[in-house]
Write a structure and sequence with these properties.
325 residues, alpha/beta, Rossmann fold, 9 helices, disordered N terminus, disordered C terminus
Length: 325
Amino acid sequence: MKQMNRRRFVRATGAVAAAPALASLPWSTAGAQDSGDPRVDSDIVFGRGGDIDLLLDVYHPPEGVTPKRMAVIHLFGGGFFVGNKNAGYIVNDARALGRLGYTNVSANYRLQSEGSWPAQIHDTKAAIRWVRANAADIGVDADKIAVAGYSAGGMLSLLAAGTNGMDEFEGDGGNGGVSSDVQAGIGVYPLTSAATAGGLFPDDLTEDERARAMEAASPTTYIGENFAPTIFIHGTADTTVPMSSSIDFVNRLHDAGVPAALTLIQGAAHAFDNSALDAVDVMAHSIDLFLDRLIVDPEPYPSFGGGRGGRGGRGRGGPGGAGRN
C-alpha cells in the first residue's frame, strides 16, 4: 500500500505516529527514556577489519517522532590518529537529527595505527552495506542512506559519495554483494583532500606511488555527474580546515550539475558541534531541508514565476503554491 504523504497525514489527523518498537532485535537495548532522547542500540558488530570487530551504534528517533525512514551514517574525526563512534559531536548531531525523524548510525573505522589505506574506506563501505542489509530491521528504506563525516571522517563520507559503484573501494568487511551506494553525502568541516593524511599510506611507497595513492584517496578526484548530492557544514572561524575548501568543493559540484549546498556557521571554529547546541540545531535543520527535498519526500523549489505572485503566492504550501499532492 502506498504510504500517505507525511505532511498530508499530519494535517489530516493532527497526530504524530510513534516510532516502531524494535526491542525484539537481538542487539536491542531498548528501555524507558525521556521523550526527547533517542533509543540507542550500542556496539553492534557490522563487519570485520583485519582482525578487528567493527562496531556501530543505531540511534532511533525519539518516542513520538514520525520516522522519515532515512538513515544517516556518521563517521568521526581525529585526523585518522584518534577518535571513535562515541564522539560528543556525533551524539549531539544524532540527537538533533533524530528529533527531526532520522535514524542515525555512528560507525567505527580503523585508525591509521590499525590499518593502512584503503582500510578506512573499506570499513566505511562495510558500514553502508550493513545499514542497507538491515534496513527493514532498523526502520529505514534501503534506498535512503546518507553518509556524514566530520573532519577526517568527512574525507571518507565525501569519498563514499563520489565512488558509488566502484568495486575497488569495497573491501571484504562484511555483507558482500550488498550495494554500498549512498543517496547523499554530508561533509561537516571535512578534509577534501588526502594531501594532509600522509600517515595513512604505507611507508615503503615511492614518491610517485604516494602521490598516486593520495590522488586516488582524495574526494575531489571523483567530482562529476555521478557524485551523490552533498551538503557541507562549516564554521567561518575554522582554522583547522579552512571553509574555503568546502566552498570550492560546492562550486565544483555545482559546475558538474550535482545538487549541492553549503551552510556556514558564523564565528564557529572546528568541531563547533561539541558544545554549540544552537549551531547544532541550525546544522540539523539545514541537513533536513536538503535531504527532505531531494530524497525523503522529493520536491523541487518552485520557480520565481516571472514576478507573478512573488514569495507570498508561490511558496511551498502557500496560497496558490506548488505544494505536494
